[in-house]
Amino acid sequence: MTNSIDINQLVRKNIRELTPYQSARRIGGSGDVWLNANEYPTAPHYQLTQQTLNRYPEQQPEQVINRYADYVGVKTEQLIVSRGADEAIELLMRAFCEPDKDSIIYCPPTYGMYLVSAQTLGINCKAISQTADWQLDLTVIEQNLASVKLIYVCSPNNPTGNLLNPDDIKTLLAMTKGKALVIVDEAYIEFSAANSVVSWLANYPHLVILRTLSKAFALAGLRCGFTIANKPVIDALQKVIAPYPLAVPVADIATQALSHENLTTMKLQVRNLNKLKERFIDKLDSLNIVERIYPSSANYILVKFNDPQVFNYCWQHGIILRDQNKQIGLENTIRITIGTQAECDAVIQALTHFERQEGK
Ligand SMILES: *Cc1c(COP(=O)(O)O)cnc(C)c1O
């Protein structure tokens, strides 16, 4: 009879109703060209130097914290390292939001994990759409601040690629002072480094910044991210984080990735990738099926096509991109990660073939 037990009835109601995050890996696909997860296209090579796997790791590996604090120019007490920025998104909710009572605000079209994490924890979500030019709708946000503890904004925004207007972030910080935290997700900031808001921390006790080694540092497989904020916020997060959030090999490699030499390499690779992006945009621009290419400050671009079949055509030809058609305001758009020169060329070639086949 064990087969007839309905485990699903034991699952929490909000989890039964939850649509999990549709990660690039979950969606799958098969092919040679993977440009759907904003990963860096080539792997860095590191050797493990720590063999003490019989011991638990440090709760917050000192060298990782010291080096990252140095890199961003903050005090070590203003940092916490976690299993990717994704874990940080959730830690903030666990530390600051009462389930069924408090709310978060997020601003679609944007990164999907703010919503999924809140739904998982039973925290209310207020979706406040961005304006037509993909900036914060400050008027509507201000009208909806009741019960809100956390406001997640993303700059450069995923998937649109644009930066948020810094004056708008300042206005948001002014209207939320003493009421809510403003979380600026800077997962892609290295591709547009001058636009970080880290230097604002001295003026705003309720500003929080999320960072990751997954994108510009080419270490998505490592699972290592950072939260930067003033000490009282970090202290609250320290209370709820797992006892050993970073495995020994993760801390080992993160420490190496943050050496002076490897930081220099990272910055060089970012410059090269940004150049590749400009060339890719020029080529895309000459195609008839391309309706619009949105300006990007990140390692991906959002492209609007005048034909709904482009995504499937590429998918069938082994070029895996990220369909954004279902996101609010993004009909017929596809997000394309900037890969190697060869990968970018393969996209252009596929799109050119598609155009010919369709007689456009
Ligand atoms: C990729 C991404 C993250 C997640 O980063 P991890 O450190 O890999 O968990 C967070 N925010 C945005 C906007 C992202 O695109």
CATH topology of the largest domain: Aspartate Aminotransferase, domain 2
Estimate the helix proportion, in percent. Answer: 25-40%
Question: What's the helix count?
Answer: 12
CATH architecture of the largest domain: 3-Layer(aba) Sandwich
Cα-to-Cα separation, first versus last residue: 61 Å
Order of helices and strands: HHEHEHEHEHEHEEEHHHEEHEEEH
Which range does the strand content fall in? 15-25%
Oligomer: single chain
The CATH top-level class label of the largest domain:
Alpha Beta
Strand order of the largest sheet: 2-8-7-6-5-3-4
**Rg, please?**
21 Å
Which residues form runs of ≥5 with pLDDT under 50? none
Cofactors, ions, other ligands: pyridoxal-5'-phosphate
**Mind telling me the CATH superfamily name of the largest domain?**
Type I PLP-dependent aspartate aminotransferase-like (Major domain)
Query: In the residues, how many domains can be counted?
Result: 2
Morphology call: globular
The biggest sheet amounts to:
7 strands, mixed
**What is the averaged pLDDT score?**
95
Please provide the count of β strands.
13
Structural class: alpha/beta
